[in-house]
Structures are given as C-alpha cells and as structure tokens.
Design goal:
Elements (H helix, E strand, L loop, with lengths): L2 H5 L5 E3 L9 E3 L9 E4 L12 H6 L4 E4 L11 E4 L4 H11 L8 E6 L4 H14 L4 E4 L3 E4 L2 E4 L7 H13 L4 E5 L2 H5 L10 E4 L7 H4 L2 H13 L6 E5 L5 H4 L6 E6 L6 E9 L2 E6 L2 E5 L4 H16 L4 H10 L8 E4 L5 E5 L4 H15 L5 E5 L9 H11 L3 E4 L9 H9 L4 H5 L1 E3 L3 H11 L5 E5 L6 E4 L2 E4 L2 H12 L1
Parallel strand pairs: 2-3, 3-4, 4-5, 6-10, 6-11, 7-10, 11-12, 12-13, 13-14, 18-22, 19-20, 19-22, 20-21
Antiparallel strand pairs: 1-5, 7-8, 8-9, 14-15, 15-16, 17-18, 23-24
Helix pairs in contact: 3-5, 4-10, 10-11, 12-13, 13-14, 16-17
C-alpha cells in the first residue's frame, strides 16, 4: 500500500519522497522491521521507540512515523512527523491488514474479573455450533482451531490486527477478545470495529498503572464510549458501575443480572463442586460451572450469543456442554478425599467470590485452607486487602510467593501480613516457597476439606528476579496426589 494511502487524512509533516513509498508491513518494534516496513516510533511506558529509528531503518524500514525527527535522516527513507503516534498505530495497522474487524463480528469483553471465562466460553460455544471463530485472551489466542501463544491480555495493535487478518483468511465469522484497561488507555484497540461489548464487573486492580480507581474506571468506560450505533453493549446490572459504563455509549444497551429484573436473568437452583442447575430466562439448564460469579459469566455468554443471532434454545443446549476455562475454579479430587481448587483470583474481590462459592457448596461440612500470594512490582495497596479477605473466609491461610518478579518475596509477604488482625494471624503461616506452601496445605487437609490455591490459575511459570521458571499449580497438586495413593 502507498504510504500516503496508509496515512490517509492524518495530519503530518513530511520529509523525503513520501508519495513514492510502498509499505508492505508495519511495526513498533525495530527488531521486527523488514524490507518495506513502516516503523512507528512510540513513546512507551518502558522505553522510547524514537531511540530505535536508526535500528529499524537498518533492518529494512522504508518509512518512519514519529513525533520527533531524528537528526540523521537516511537517504531513500520517508519520514512523517505527527503530534502523537500512539493513537495512530491501530488505525494504520487496521488499514494495512485490510480492516479485518469489519469483515467479521468482533465482540470485546472488559472488566476486572471474568473476561477470560466469558470470551473463551463464547468462542467455544460458537465453535460447538459449527461456526469458525477466533479468540484473543489471556490464556491463549486461537485462529479458528490454531492455537497462538498469548503474551498479553490484549496484544499490541500490530499483532492484534495481524491476528484478526489471519482469522478473516481462515474464514472466521466471529472473534471474541478480552479488552484490558491497559489496551484502552494505550490505544491498542484503535481502528477496530466492534459488533458488541460486554462489561463483567469492576473492582480494584492495576492501580500501579492507572494510579486511581477513577482512572481505571474511565479506561474501561472509554471502550463503551467508542462502540458504534450498530453494536450492542451488554452490561452487568449487579455491579454498581454497570450502568456507568454504558451511560454515554451509542450502542444499544442490554443488561444481565442474578439479582434484579434484566434482559437476561438467572437463578441458582442447585450447586455442587461438579456444577450447577440454573433457571435462565425461565428455562432450566445444568452447567459444569460453579459459583455465583460464573452465573454472571454464563449470563454474559448467553446474552451475547442471543444478541449475535443464536436461538435461545440452541444457546442453552450449548452452555450445558461447555467446561470451565483452565485455571478458573478448576477442581481436582485428592485420593485422600479433599478437593483442591486452582483459581486465577488475584484481586480482593475475586478471592471473595471464589471463597464464598466454596462455602456455599460446603455448607459448613468441611474446612477451607487458602494458599495465596501477590505479584511483585504491582499494586502494593491490594496486598493487605487480599490477605484479609482470604483470612476472613478461610479456616487456615498460607501466604506464599506468586510472581515476585524483581521484589523480595518476604517484603511482599510482610505487606500482606499487615492486613491481618491478631486473630487472623494466629490462623496464618508464611511459606515463601510456593511448592512447599501447597504441600503443607495438602498435608493438613482431611476428607471433605477444600484447599484453594489462588493467584496463578493457568500460568505455568513463576517469575523470580526477572527470570521465568516453570511452575504450574495444577501440576504440583497432581504430583502431591500421586504420593497420597
């Protein structure tokens, strides 16, 4: 594509023969530049792309979009200078890849908790119904049946549009993606056309980046503000921010709820660790999910499926055969008769949801031990809150390491311990080694008890001092189970 066509109506100051340049690829990482690339220099949160312009040109970039012109202009390279490059990356990437989001029905899911489950179950439901579909999620991306490893909840705009283009080429009719607050704030979804948006809930998270809860809320809300009139906005009426999210959207608003009248409503008739029996919009359906939070997730899935044209009866039948996402309230039965649950819960609210669900099912018939830590180099403020909620709803608490990253694990544990009362501290032990912590919880568990291993869920690594080491909570538990036979 001609560079001038790619830039379109963007206002820029040009240097070099822009009119004659043909662009075959776009990148924001100089290491990914190839012959024919347009390199877009973005001032990121970690580094400034302007420092790597010469490297991109050396690797084959024929054009550069930047905010500040480099001192040494290379012959044969076209330069375009704009006020801010970050909001333009998605728009340009979308144009170069043929605006793939307009060629299928793209649905975005945003919120603090439930994004992965909602997006993944939607993807599996449409696949089950015989449709070609794509998925962009925290756990793994899928181009129809092809798995593509995921590095971020929402990829950078270039990767995102490249994946969407691959989905179009594969014949996908639908695509479902998690939309993180970082993605909105950093314009990663700029240039995309959504057929629908789903709001799950909003609780404290990512304040290390957003600084205030209000900024976090605004980032989520911007997604709905940008939805077109042709789209649907499906919001959780049980969350106090559910209506705030959609108050300025142009999309048609729909609601789902477990507590009030809504377009999509559900009640729990029966609940156990193997699943639930629900009354969903007046119809009974047995599902293989557990917990009130999963009722909300399934309502979002059902509502979105119906709004995308699936017959309600077909949607219910498909929901009945869906299985939980890896690391999301994943239950394992020990040979000793206790139940171990692996869950990604890494916020105070998510821990409360999981532990309240466990108590609802146990109904006082067993004890609960929770193993949990907190990530390093992230929001310090939620650490004592997480520990308090875990202690409040557990008979025994083991505080351990999560992904300490570049922090001292004991410093993170001390931050968590600061949130406990004296009585809660008496029921709490600290074991920095996560494997030892899980083993200690299992050693004490008896028939009918529950061991919750929270915080990492699907993750198969532990990041220590910037190095990722293989570590999988589920694998550790299964190894422990083998020794119990």
């Amino acid at each position: 594509m001609k560079l001038t066509d790619l830039l379109g109506k963007i206002k820029y100051e040009s240097f070099g023969d822009i009119a004659s340049v043909d662009v075959t690829d776009v990148c924001i990482d100089s290491r990914q530049a190839v012959n024919g690339s347009l390199f877009i220099a973005v001032k990121g949160t970690v580094t400034d792309g302007h420092l790597y312009i010469d490297k991109a040109v050396c690797n084959g970039a024929v054009a550069v979009l930047c905010q500040k012109l480099p001192e040494d202009l290379k012959p044969g390279v076209a330069y375009a200078v704009v006020r801010d490059t970050e909001p333009l990356v998605g728009v340009i990437a979308s144009r170069l890849f043929g605006e793939p989001s307009t060629k299928m029905k793209l649905v975005g899911v945003t919120g603090t908790n439930g994004k992965t489950t909602t997006a993944t179950v939607l993807y599996k439901l449409f696949k089950h119904l015989g449709h070609k579909a794509g998925l962009l999620s925290t756990v793994c991306n899928y181009v129809d049946d092809e798995a593509v490893p995921a590095d971020h909840t929402t990829p950078d705009p270039v990767t995102l549009n490249r994946l969407l283009a691959r989905m179009v080429d594969a014949g996908c009719e639908y695509a479902f993606m998690e939309v993180s607050s970082h993605a909105v704030a950093q314009h990663r979804i700029a240039g995309l056309q959504f057929a629908g948006g789903i709001f799950t809930n909003l609780t404290r998270d990512h304040l290390d980046y957003h600084k205030t809860f209000e900024n976090y809320l605004k980032a989520k809300k911007q997604f709905f503000d940008g939805l077109p009139k042709s789209a649907f906005a499906l919001t959780n009426d049980d969350d106090r921010n559910g209506r705030v999210m959609v108050q300025n959207t142009k999309a048609k608003i729909y609601t789902y709820s477990r507590q009030t009248g809504a377009d999509f409503k559900a009640d729990v008739l029966e609940s156990h660790f193997e699943g639930m029996l629900l009354m969903l919009n007046g119809q009974e359906v047995a599902v293989q999910f557990v917990g009130s939070f999963n009722v909300s997730n399934l309502l979002a899935v059902y509502g979105a499926a119906v709004l995308l044209g699936v017959e309600p009866h077909e949607a219910l039948l498909a929901l009945s055969v869906m299985r939980p996402v890896s690391g999301r309230f994943e239950t394992l039965k020990s040979p000793k008769g206790y139940t171990a649950i692996v869950d990604y819960a890494h916020t105070p609210d998510a821990l409360v949801n999981v532990l309240e669900t466990i108590h609802d099912v146990l109904d006082g018939r067993g004890s609960v031990t929770t193993v949990v830590g907190a990530g390093g180099n992230r929001d310090h403020g939620k650490r004592p809150m997480m520990a308090h909620e875990a202690a409040r709803l557990s008979d025994r608490l083991i505080i351990t390491s999560d992904n300490p990253r570049n922090e001292d694990p004991m410093a993170i544990i001390e931050d968590m311990l600061a949130g406990l009362t004296e009585e809660e501290k008496r029921r709490t032990v600290s074991i920095p080694d996560r494997r030892e912590a899980i083993a200690a919880a299992c050693e004490e568990a008896r028939k009918g008890d529950v061991v919750l291993v929270a915080g990492k869920g699907h993750e198969n690594y532990q990041e220590i001092n910037g190095v990722k080491h293989h570590f999988d909570d589920k694998e550790v538990l299964l190894d422990i189970f083998k020794s119990q036979i």
